[in-house]
Amino acid sequence: MPSLKLGNTVIPYEERRSRRIKRISIRVTPEKVRVSAPARTSKSEIQAFIDKNRDWIIQNWTKLQETMVKPQRVYETGEKIPFVGKELTLEIMDTPQKMIRALYKKENEVLEIKIPQELQGEQRQEALREIIEKWYKQKARTVFLQKLNNWSQQMGVSYNQFRLKEQKTRWGSCSSLGNINLNWRAIMAPEPVLDYLVIHELSHLRHMDHSSEFWENVACYCPEHALHRRWLKEKGHGLVI
Ligand SMILES: [Zn+2]
């Protein structure tokens, strides 16, 4: 792969030109910088665009290199992905259609993905990652809502609003207004861990702190909470796609 030299920074570089691309754009990923441009864009136009965005590229590239610790997974048929303590098998099928779709087949724990056959290589992997994330978020919303409703009834509390969040370091939060946020990535954890997270946030409706009274309340509904907390601490960073 060619590379782009910006000052002291050397970055793998890819250029894509296509009639289907309407305007010139730059994308910085943990692996490379990619410029996409309409088919007839000249070399000098591309160079000018890169020069104009030079600082932005360096900044983003550096940031990604520092924070990217997650290994890039390859999604293909037979690969397993975690879901509420289970492992789903991916089945990826080419379709002549333009839409990408995911279908969960509960009976054999398969996530079937139909993907436009024209998507290949890295584009294909990106599309797969996106659809899997979208599917996780949909499922997370449903599962969390069920659990919130179930546990809030059992605990005799009521929350205000629920929002699905994506946070780097937090699994959930509860505001003084009774709004509960939960991180969609938790949907990849075992079910008792999910229950613990929900019970934890709902307990904040009684105690807004992490006092001993708070933990007593958590323990009433989730006696093994310490175990689940440890699980999240040790394995939580691996719940990425
Ligand atoms: Zn808390």
From TrEMBL:
Pfam families: YgjP-like (PF01863). The lineage of its organism: Bacteria, Bacillati, Bacillota, Clostridia, Eubacteriales. GO terms for molecular function: hydrolase activity. It comes from Desulfitobacterium dichloroeliminans (strain LMG P-21439 / DCA1). InterPro entries: UTP_pyrophosphatase-like, YgjP-like_metallopeptidase. Keywords: Hydrolase. Coiled coil: none annotated. Residues 22-234 form the YgjP-like metallopeptidase domain. Gene3D superfamilies: Metalloproteases ('zincins'), catalytic domain. This is Putative metal-dependent hydrolase.
